[in-house]
Amino acid sequence: MRKLSLFLLTSVTCLSLWGQGATDGQILKINTNNSSLTLLAGNDSLLYQLGYGSLQAPEYTIPPKGIAREKEFYPPSGNGFIAEPAIEVNHADGNTSTDLFYQNHKITKIDSNIDLTVIHLKDPQYPFFVDIYIKSYQKEDILEMWTEVYHEENGAVTLYKYASASPIFSAKNYWLTQFCGNYKREATLVEEKLSSGIKVLDSKIGVRAHQMRIPSFMLSLNQPANEDSGEVYTGSLSWPGSFQLAFDLDWNNNLRALSGINPYASKYVLEKGLKFKTPVSIWTYSDSGKGQASRNLHTWAINYTVRDGKKDRPILLNNWEATHCDFDEKKIVSLFDGAKEVGIELFLLDDGWFGNGKYARDDDKHGLGDWDIDMKKLPSGLSYLCNEASKRKIGFGIWLEPEMVNPKSLLNERHPDWVITQAKRTPLYGRNQMILDLTRPEVQKFEWDEVIDKTLKPNPGISYVKWDANRYVTQPGSSYLPANKQSHLLIDYNNALLALMKKTKDNYPNVMMMLCAGGSGRTDYGSMQYFHSFWSSDNTDPLKRVFIQWGFSHIFPANTISAHVTRMGGRPMKFAIDVALSGAYGIDLDLAKLTPQEKKQIESSVELYKKSLRPIVQQGNLYRLSSPYENANASLSYISQDKAKAVVFVYQVEDGQNNKIKLKGLDPTKNYTLKELNLEAGKASSFDLNGKTVSGAELMSNGFTPVCVKQLESMVIGLNVE
Questions:
Q1: What is the mean pLDDT of residues 613-627?
Q2: pLDDT tens, position by position, 82-104
Q3: End-to-end C-alpha distance for the chain, whole angstroms
Q4: pLDDT digits (tens, 9 = 90+) for 227-238
Q5: Angle between helices 381-391 and 329-342 (to 10 degrees)
Q6: Contact at 8 Å (CB) between 569 and 563?
Q7: Are 260 and 281 within 8 A, CB to CB?
Q8: Which pLDDT band holds residue 20 (cuts at 50, 70, 90)?
Q9: What does 2-26 look like in DSSP terms, one character per residue?
Q10: What are the residues facing 695 on neighbouring strands?
Q11: Which residues does the UniProt record annotate as the domain Glycosyl hydrolase family 36 C-terminal (predicted)?
Q12: Which of 226, 244, 274, 443 has the most other CB atoms within 10 Å of its CB?
């Protein structure tokens, strides 16, 4: 009996030690217009999170017995914290425990809308430091969070975990939405209720790392995510490489959401005096459902992050569907003529323009890495094509894949040690190619000197680049990195990649750029600060694109989502056009093979997009009206900032009677005239509100019934204030 009593006493003591924390301290509030992150620098020297949510929420109070350790804001491992840590360290002397004590903080007002808070933490026993950065955007309700880790210990420190952020949430239950899939079925929405334990969403493939899942999510409290109601948090990691999003639901029903670089097989040996900077973790809060959370992100992205966010994205014609690698100079120039006839603004020459002799780029097995112009196909060079395009008053763009090499190439013959692979293993290829090791200084120099600068500098007429990356890492080994730093590969590669992207932007500020990675295998805001748009999928079947573009709309604004008209799926031309018009519009067709009616449809759609739709779609506020996951149709609208103009898209994804579409975001006091747009030649509208004027209040309360009933029917409706 005495042994049992002693056991109970010991257990209670341990629980008390775990539960005992700060009873007082300094409150630090980081506010936006509608949200507040409340931290406590406790009288026990630890940094806690008291809450993150509505600015109107009641003030947080500290429990009389002290705040629990599981509420630490950026918890380290090994000294009392027993849940999932944000950081795990082996110190130079081998000690595997870390404490992080609050030292001080500083708030800098960058401008009237942006504040930067820096919180300094230090281990009390070691010269080991973590600085937490939180940049707040007032109007957009956005928080950017990241950390910098550094030390002055006598020897290297090894980092095993290094989250960018790890905020905590308190609710009865939690619903998590991820955006997953694979090649040609990207950004599929999957929602689940979280249960006790850890749910991990991740990527381990390093390059083209987002092929199966993008590094973004939505978290809804107490109910499944609703478009227009409920508390929803949205997170996105600004990192093109392997990532980890971990959701730890603990024994007290608190949820910690950790986001950052995936630490899997990526321990990082940090030398004295160097800094390890984690990528930015983006957060937004909405008490009005996921629709408002998306609009927060879109507005922030356009104003602050996406390259030239307010610049029009050109309507482009890509030759890939028309020619693949089989073309010559005459064929390409003829495509310019077709582009001019229908009003297209830019021609993009895709893969196949480089390589010579036995390694000519006539298919995807040869020539990648040999960035000399194919003199058989293009004897007059790229400048000639630029000039011919300019004569027709259209821009000229080019496809590049700087990071890759074919085994059958001169580059690989000369530098077989430049590729990422594992020694003593048979090399594994993806799309008949391998990845150049960007941790190597000579590879960094090659990709700039012999690919990017070599292509753009002598050809100032190039105004657009499509940057591709068509495989991921399966054998993460480097012949350059030392044995004890092989685990640095996927981190150092992506930091070098971002530096190369930045260098391209800085040196060629007038060259617009599309991000591609075999579809949307690289879809993050870390990359998008250097790019204008991204290619959301190689699946251009418009029926499938409805779902793909719907998924991406939760995180990215329409001007970043490249949407092109093709023949994939054999769908009606009007349906294909209507789907593409809701994004950054483009064409992937051989215009010479169109029927006169189809050509007229393309020409009319280009004119419509340029004259009416582009400013609304690319700069307006998005409202998702009817989900294709729940209904027989999908519907979304964009509304101009002054609410004077709007456009509504309706896509019938399966046969069935249509649900009524109630509009959102209009000015209830204004009257709007509705007009069905992009009708096929000779067809009159059967829409009962066509040409009629209706109040914003009526359209939002009663809505309208679309005329679409059969699968692949669609409508585009314009609204203008009278």
A1: 98
A2: 999 999 999 999 999 999 999 99
A3: 86
A4: 999 999 999 999
A5: 20
A6: no
A7: yes
A8: low
A9: HHHHHHHHHHHHHHHHHH---SSEE
A10: 671
A11: 634-716
A12: 443
Please state the rounded mean pLDDT for residues 403-410.
Answer: 98
Locate 698 and state its tokens. Answer: 């009526």
Domain boundary among 283, 305, 327: 305
* pLDDT tens by residue, 301-317: 999 999 999 999 999 99
Could you give the C-alpha distances from 636 to 312, 314, 611, 660, 720, in angstroms and in order? 21, 22, 20, 13, 17
Given a contact cutoff of 8 angstroms between Cβ atoms, the answer to whether 269 and 485 are in contact is yes
Residue written as tokens 């779902």?
547
Tell me the average pLDDT across 566-586: 98
Residue 716's domain spans which residues? 622-721
Structural contact between residues 668 and 699, judged by C-beta atoms closer than 8 angstroms: no
Provide CB contacts within 8 A for 107, sequence distance 6+: 115, 116, 117
Comparing CA positions, the residue from 693, 677, 10, 621 lying closest to residue 300 is 621
Give the mean pLDDT of the chain.
96
Residue 599 vs residues 324, 369, 572: alpha-carbon distances, Å: 21, 37, 13
- Non-local CB neighbours of 363 within 8 Å, separated by 6+ positions: 325
Instruction: List the catalytic residue out of 44, 538, 590, 667.
Output: 538
468, 492, 578, 588: which one is catalytic?
Answer: 468
Note whether residue 662 is domain-resident: yes
> Distance (Å, rounded) from C-alpha 492 to C-alpha 206?
10
Kindly state whether residue 453 falls inside one of the protein's structural domains: no
- Its pTM surpasses 0.70: yes
pLDDT (0 to 100) of residue 658: 75
Q: For the domain that residue 221 is a member of, what is the CATH number? A: 2.70.98.60
> Is pLDDT of 5 > 80?
no
Q: How far apart are CA 36 and CA 53, in angstroms?
A: 6
Tell me which residue of 474, 481, 529, 472 sits closest to 505, measured CA to CA: 529
The single-letter code of the amino acid at 523 is: T
User: What is the total count of domains within the chain?
Assistant: 2
Tokens representing residue 628 in the block: 């294709």
The verdict on whether 468 is a catalytic residue reads yes
What per-residue confidence (pLDDT) applies to 657? 76
Res 21: pLDDT: 85
Per-residue model confidence as pLDDT tens digits over 532-562: 999 999 999 999 999 999 999 999 999 999 9
Q: Rounded CA gap, 687 and 678, in Å?
A: 13
Distance CA 167, CA 36 (A): 12
pLDDT at 61: 86
Distance CA 704, CA 195 (A): 40
User: Residue 647 belongs to a domain with what CATH number?
Assistant: 2.60.40.1180
Average pLDDT over residues 613-641: 97
The dihedral through the CA atoms of 350, 352, 355, 359 has a sign that is: positive
Is residue 326 assigned to a domain?
A: no
Question: What's 211's DSSP letter?
Answer: S
Tell me if 225 is assigned to some domain: yes
Q: Parallel, antiparallel, or unpaired: how do β-strands 316-318 and 584-587 relate?
A: parallel
Residue 715 one-letter amino acid: M
Instruction: Determine the average pLDDT of the residues in 366-383.
Output: 98
Cβ(649)–Cβ(637) below 8 Å: yes
- The pLDDT of 284-297, averaged and rounded, is 98
Single residue among 244, 272, 305 that ends a domain in this structure: 305
Q: Which pLDDT belongs to residue 266? A: 98
> Residue 76 pLDDT more than 50?
yes
Q: Residue 317's pLDDT is what?
A: 98
Q: DSSP string spanning 422-486?
A: -TTS----BTTBEEB-TTSHHHHHHIIIIIIHHHHTT-TTEEEEEE------SS---SSS-GGGG
Residue 660 burial (10 A CB sphere; 0-12, 13-18, 19+): exposed
Side-chain half-sphere of 681: how many Cα atoms within 13 Å?
Answer: 12
Active-site residue flag, 417: no
